[in-house]
Write a structure and sequence with these properties.
Largest sheet of chain A: 4 strands, parallel
Oligomer: homodimer
Strand order of the largest sheet of chain A: 1-12-10-11
Strand content of chain A: 15-25%
Number of strands of chain A: 12
Distance between the termini of chain A: 17 Å
Number of helices of chain A: 10
Order of helices and strands of chain A: EHEHEEHEHEHEHEHEHEHEEH
Low-confidence stretches of chain A: none
């Protein structure tokens, strides 16, 4: 008889992206070298397991600067920091560890450049995502944020439009939106600000999804880039589960002959991925 | 009994476009006011019937400057003129009537601007079309001319790409190509140089094609914009005939219950259109 067993296929791009790795390292170093209390102004990245790690190390996560005593150390988010918040931090004489992802910093710079040069700025992003909040703050909210095709219809014709994206958006949708925006202007200047890691993961997950029966996409429930990976799999018609940890897996999702694809967001740590794989192997050894 | 008869529906945008109207008027005026012989360096527009009109007025159409005696008047094409040809005309002390369409002039200016500012210039166009030949001459051939999706694949990744189009290309294809080009660069700067008349005609013909059984697209066999209109109709699956004049129409194409749509290129004169409509009415009065 043929040896029938569950097959696990991994996406080619897994683990922390460059920006997340850098942010986590900066935060770790700050904790090691700081004498006093270390505060985090909002979760450094959208992964609860990583956040838990920092909580165990004694870091306090707060949602407002008021909760941080003067002269403490404050770690700001990988998603960027608003100039107004930065000003308040400086006024309070806090020691700042700015972990803003360099790619998010670039989005802010391009937004400022397009604004200064008379482009009507359109951003593909989630209005309430911290990255977009920080970008909007840099340009005094002088932009149109869109998240769907129907929103393009509402944009009036402009002489010149600048178009950028949240770093973690779907590259295929960004391309389609770009082509639709051409209807609204004589000049369309597009900066592809979707970060390379995002694009690579999306392309890699698309390839994987068409080869498997079930997709497990591992990452924070609030992680925009993980959500997008799951969305791409679902659009391919494959049964897809977005989970944070092994504990959310259900035995009945699988069957012995299944091909299971595994992908993870840019802020999912290796240990969380490994635990999921181990559990699958335990169930179908 | 119901009165069954052939129905004729006209596209909302017919007759000469702004640029063609201007070129033809300039040429007519030159003939009226000139004392000596008037020469045309290539067909002023791609419509044989209009050209015939000028031949009857005594204009000589030549394919080379060598065939024009010194001090004559030369009418250049609506599709634009190369700086090198212009230099030769000036050297020969010819009196020039430059009928270049203002929208083509704008394409040349934008091409120069993008070139000077370090963009890898990509042009959606036909390499041998006189408009593209004139644009390429302005920028010393420093551009990649593409006419299909497969050609994008061959373009290597660039820091910044400028993208423009021949004024008479298909707007839907230009949009799709723009979105594909985003894969090749961090910054894509698109100038929609497809002229308004082209876009309006294409959108109008698309609406018409889905309502009729047969499409007659009237215009010169070498007219790029007419060819595109016929192409759009064919892509909608409607039986489409690209004709120059009433004499190319065949009785057997039609039947009494047919709905016939009529569209025309930007260089098709009204009298040619009217003759086609008259013939149809004669057949199915």
């Amino acid at each position: 008889m043929e040896n029938i067993e569950l097959k696990i296929l991994l996406s080619k791009k897994m683990g922390f992206c460059f920006g997340v790795k850098k942010s986590v390292e900066l935060a770790k170093k700050a904790i090691e070298t700081s004498n006093g209390k270390v505060y985090m102004l909002g979760p450094i990245i959208n992964n609860p397991q990583v956040l838990e790690y920092f909580l165990k190390k004694g870091v306090r996560v707060v949602d407002s600067l008021h909760k941080i005593p003067e002269k403490s150390t404050v770690i700001t988010r990988a998603h960027g920091i608003s100039p107004s918040v930065l000003n308040q931090i400086l006024k309070k004489r806090l020691s700042i560890i700015d972990t803003t992802c360099p790619y998010v910093k670039k989005v802010q710079e391009i937004a400022v450049y397009l604004n200064k040069n008379g482009y009507c700025l359109v951003i593909f992003g989630d209005k309430i995502h911290p990255e977009i909040v920080s970008v909007l703050d840099v340009i005094d909210n002088n932009a149109i944020v869109i998240d769907s095709f129907s929103e393009i219809e509402k944009i009036s014709k402009r002489k010149k439009i600048g178009f950028i994206s949240q770093t973690t958006k779907n590259i295929y949708n960004f391309q389609k939106l770009s082509s639709s925006l051409l209807d609204k202007t004589e000049e369309l200047r597009i900066f592809n600000t979707i970060c390379k890691a995002t694009t690579e993961r999306q392309k890699s997950v698309l390839k994987l999804a068409i080869q498997v029966d079930i997709m497990l996409v591992i990452g924070g429930s609030k992680s925009a880039n993980t959500f997008r990976l799951a969305e791409i799999c679902k659009n391919q018609g494959v049964k897809t589960y977005h989970i944070e940890t092994k504990d959310q897996m259900k035995y009945e999702w699988f069957h012995p002959e299944a091909k299971v694809g595994i992908a993870s967001g840019a802020s999912t740590p290796d240990w969380v991925i490994n635990e999921v794989i181990t559990r699958l192997k335990e169930w179908y050894a």
